[in-house]
Amino acid sequence: MKKHPVVFVVKKEYDNLGIGYMSSVLHEAGFKTKIIDATDRNEKILKKLKKIKPLLVGFSVIYQYHIDQFTEMIGFLREGGISCHFTAGGHYASLKYEELLKLIPWLDSVVRFEGEYTIRELAECIYSGKDWRQIESISYTNEEEIIANPLRPLEQNLDRLPYPVRSPLSDYAFSKKFSTLLAGRGCVYNCSFCNLREFYLPFPGQIKRTREPEMVVREMDYLFKKKGCSIFLFQDDDFPVKGDRGSYWIERFCNELKRRRLSDKIIWKINCRPDEVEEKSFAMMKSNGLFLAFIGIEDGTNAGLKRINKHLTVARSLAGINTLKKLEIGFDFGFMLFQPATTFRSLNENLDFLKVICGDGYSPVTLLKMMPYYKTRIEKELMAEGRIKGEPGYRDYDFLEAPMNDYFEFITGCFSKWTRDPGGVVNISKWARNYISVCSRYYDFTPSLSLISMDIKNLISESNLFLIEIMKELSTLFESGKFGNGNYQELKRYRKNIKNKHEHYRKKINNTMINLVTLVELQR
């Protein structure tokens, strides 16, 4: 191994599989790697880098809304005496490399798009003293000119890559360890709010590449036997539930799980579209360990779905959701209640939709605003309309109706802890449901545990219905135009009621969780 390692600075909420794959390729080439948490204080990061003495430092810049943090950090590190090569990578860095190199002049280069082979070649050039400026997929500043080298072809056979380097696995629930992994990369859809297609558009060949199902299960088997992993969270943007040959991939995947005798020993979660949920294939997946699906619903009206180019209907969304409920597969979902075209009428139609799918407590309601991410159709439309506001990294927009801006401000303020805090109702509701899923898989699901499961579902139902009804009530008040420019004095009772209800449901769910854990501990 080379003496000086390659260091990645990345947010460490979950294992970053992109960094993991780059690390494994670097290891094969004889380089050590280390990861530093980007959420650490700048002083702490500086101290670590001085001790490590890295060959190069790679900054993972995935999202545009973290730019200020990275700019400040990188400038601080340079001023603190870190003089090695600084590079950046990730979705934002790949698509907006010119903007990034102008915003952060301390960067030496940007590694664009999938970076496994590029970062390896960059490390080899720096280590040997060779000129790195000719490397494919590298961008850099030459005096005042920004250079973008020709792009490296994508790796078409993802199974050629070594398994990603992973941190020691963490507990998910009841001491069961979990790991993230990928069955493929890319997505064939072109939703107007997403830039994933733009990420792969410069390259010839297939936009979506899928690993062989047997190789995916082989990795799961390795993690199960060697790392004690029981829970697998697939990070694919669109898991290969359906393909050109229907459910052929998933049939092979499930058959391999059975052949390796993993089906009754593990559980796994996927991301997919609601119109990909079919009873036959999902029943097979359920019997082989599927416990949770994240589904991209996004809108509860046909007009809204058409506007965002979802190629989906409300009826098809509901059919997929009802199938998941019938099979008792949990689901989380993406849903953008607030969009550039949102009116009070469309808002209430969407709230009615949320009541239909979440009123029974099967999944907690979430509130999101569609953000104008870089290189999306939404960003281009808003720019053409003159509605984009804010500096790079903080792009936003106002709604078409002025009272909607006031409503959004008030609602997000009232429900911030409810929907965003780790200890808020939405997050602990999801974890309560996840704990039930793990419990039902690995422990004797006694009548007492069944009652607790029902209590949790009822509490989620009550909290969902409260949120929806108070949002509808407040929408009527704000639509009148009476409460503009932050004039919310007459609405104090609503704010207080929401705060009290949040504490009420939080305590109820937490107490029920304590009872659940106590009963499971008696079986262990």
Architecture overview:
- With 524 residues, the chain is of the alpha/beta class.
- Among the domains are: 131 residues, Rossmann fold, CATH 3.40.50.280; 189 residues, no CATH class.
- The chain is 47% helix and 15% strand.
- The protein contains 19 helices and 17 strands.
- It has a 7-stranded mixed sheet, sandwiched between helices.
- Strand 12, helix 9 and strand 13 form a beta-alpha-beta unit.
- Helix 8 packs parallel to helix 9 and helix 15 runs antiparallel to helix 18.
- The longest helix has 33 residues.
- The model has no long low-confidence stretch (mean pLDDT 95).
Summarize this structure briefly.
The protein is α/β, with parallel strands linked by helices and 524 residues long.
Number of helices: 19
| CA-atom Rg in angstroms | 24 Å
Sketch the major β-sheet.
7 strands, mixed
* Mean pLDDT across all amino acids: 95
List segments where confidence is low: pLDDT < 50 over at least 5 consecutive residues.
Answer: none
Q: Helical amount among residues, as a percent range?
A: 40-55%
Adjacency order of strands in the biggest sheet: 2-1-3-4-5-6-7
Which class of secondary structure composition applies to the elements? Answer: alpha/beta
Q: Rough shape?
A: globular
What's the N-to-C terminus distance?
A: 43 Å
**What's the total number of strands?**
17
Task: Please indicate the percent range of residues in DSSP E strands (runs of 2 or more).
Answer: 5-15%
Architecture blueprint of SSEs:
Layout: E1 6-10, H1 17-28, E2 33-37, H2 42-52, E3 56-60, H3 67-79, E4 85-89, H4 91-95, H5 97-103, E5 109-111, H6 116-128, E6 138-142, E7 145-148, E8 170-173, E9 176-181, E10 184-185, H7 196-200, E11 209-210, H8 213-227, E12 229-234, H9 248-259, E13 267-272, H10 279-287, E14 290-298, H11 302-307, H12 314-327, E15 330-335, H13 344-358, H14 377-384, E16 388-389, E17 396-397, H15 402-414, H16 416-420, H17 425-442, H18 447-479, H19 492-523
Parallel strand pairs: 1-2, 1-3, 3-4, 4-5, 9-12, 12-13, 13-14, 14-15
Antiparallel strand pairs: 5-6, 6-7, 8-9, 10-11, 16-17
